[in-house]
Structures are given as structure tokens and as C-alpha cells.
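Saturday, quiet lab. Running sequence design on the C-alpha cells for the scaffold JK sent over.
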């Protein structure tokens, strides 16, 4: 199965020699499931010619807000709506989680709860899942097609499921310890000191990245009547 990655931002250049850029992080997260990958830096106005360029799609995080006035936001939303209607399986992470919600009629804002950074625990079904987060924007009102499948007190809509078509998550299953330490070092000035200290303290606590990677892979490969030969 061929996965197209729509890259909505770049890893800070100071960190790229150590952790690479966002598409590579997702390729590593989804390694071992038989996928092939191609990526388009939509944040640099690089778009696929067709949604048929991939069997399934993944939208990355970004330092930008989905409500900001960038020339690539509206074309990306058009692609999201086309993928949803096609339909093809789509996964969104952080900014990807938010832009999918906005494109399909939901509302995204800077949360009055401020920054969520570092290891966070989420109720996911009957389980508690721990993932790294780095955000202050949140989905405030999900689209009517979306069901909230994960939450905590800080982030009410931490993961959304749009039937068998789209799965999105606010946290970063692609971020490991090195990436989080790097963000603390190079982007921590924007975060309140207490929350940054919490993120630093949590760096060596266990997280469930592999679990989420498997869930995302299973979502891509799930048998669907409409998927046909794409699987």
C-alpha cells in the first residue's frame, strides 16, 4: 500500500541533522507494515497532481495555525475534502488533526487552557494511552461526521474518527525523546516555564508511540468495501 504524506511544516533546522524531517519520522513510525511512501511539502506549495497518487494519505504537524492566512491552506482543505469523498483512508496528526476538522466544518482555536507539552495521558476507549504533545491550538467543535474517540481534561477532542474514512489525533506518536528534548531547547521560549519543566521531567517516562503506529497502520490497511484494489 502506497502512503502519500502531505507535509505541513518542517522540523526546526537545528534538529534535522539529529532527527530528520517529519515525513521520515512517520516512515519510521509505520515501518514494518509493508508500506511505501511519497511526500509532498504542501507548506512549500508542493501538491500531488491527484489524490490517486497514493492509496492512503497522512497529514503531518506544523508550527502554523490552521486558521492562519497561508496560500497553501485552502488547496490543502480542498484535497482533504476530495480524499474524504473519494473515499481514501486518511490519517492526520496535530496540525493534520486540526486541518481535517476545519476542512470538514469543525472549529479550531487557540485553547484558553494554553500549551500542552510533553507526555500526556489520554483515555482511548477503555485504555489509557500516553503520547507526547506540543500544541496550544485545539479542535473546539468537531465536524458532525466525527466521533471523539480519545480525550483528557486538557484536550476534549484528542482523537477523532470519521467512520472508516479518517482517523486523526492531536498528540504526536512520531515524536520520541530526542525530538521532544530538541523542541524544549529550540522552541521552549514560547511555553510557560512550569509546563516546560513538566515536559523535561517526563522525557524518560514510557510512551505508546508503537501502539499508535500499529493503530494507524491497521486503519490504513483495514478491509473496506470501497477500498477495492487500493489495498
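Result came back. Writing it out in full:
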Amino acid at each position: 500500500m502506497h502512503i502519500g504524506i502531505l507535509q505541513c511544516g518542517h522540523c526546526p533546522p537545528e534538529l534535522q541533522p539529529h532527527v530528520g524531517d517529519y515525513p521520515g519520522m512517520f516512515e519510521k513510525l509505520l515501518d514494518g507494515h509493508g508500506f511505501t511512501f511519497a511526500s509532498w511539502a504542501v507548506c512549500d506549495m508542493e501538491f500531488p497532481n491527484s489524490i490517486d497518487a497514493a492509496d492512503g494519505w497522512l497529514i503531518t504537524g506544523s508550527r502554523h495555525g490552521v486558521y492562519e492566512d497561508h496560500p497553501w491552506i485552502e488547496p490543502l482543505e480542498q484535497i482533504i475534502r476530495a480524499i474524504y469523498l473519494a473515499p481514501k483512508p486518511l490519517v492526520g496528526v496535530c496540525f493534520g488533526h486540526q486541518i481535517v476538522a476545519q476542512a470538514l466544518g469543525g472549529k479550531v482555536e487557540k485553547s484558553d487552557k494554553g500549551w500542552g507539552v510533553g507526555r500526556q495521558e489520554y483515555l482511548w476507549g477503555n485504555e489509557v494511552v500516553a503520547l507526547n504533545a506540543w500544541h496550544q491550538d485545539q479542535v473546539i467543535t468537531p465536524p458532525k461526521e466525527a466521533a471523539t474517540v480519545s480525550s483528557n481534561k486538557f484536550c476534549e477532542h484528542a482523537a477523532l474518527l470519521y467512520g472508516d474514512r479518517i482517523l486523526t489525533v492531536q498528540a504526536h506518536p512520531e515524536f520520541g525523546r530526542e525530538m521532544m528534548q530538541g523542541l524544549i531547547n529550540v522552541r521552549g521560549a514560547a511555553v510557560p516555564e512550569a509546563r516546560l519543566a513538566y515536559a523535561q521531567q517526563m522525557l524518560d517516562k514510557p510512551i505508546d508511540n508503537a501502539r499508535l503506529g500499529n493503530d494507524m497502520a491497521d486503519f490504513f490497511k483495514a478491509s473496506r468495501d470501497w477500498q477495492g484494489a487500493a489495498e
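Notes for JK: Residues 73-85 form the longest helix (13 residues). The chain has a mean pLDDT of 96. Ask whether to fix the surface positions before the next round.
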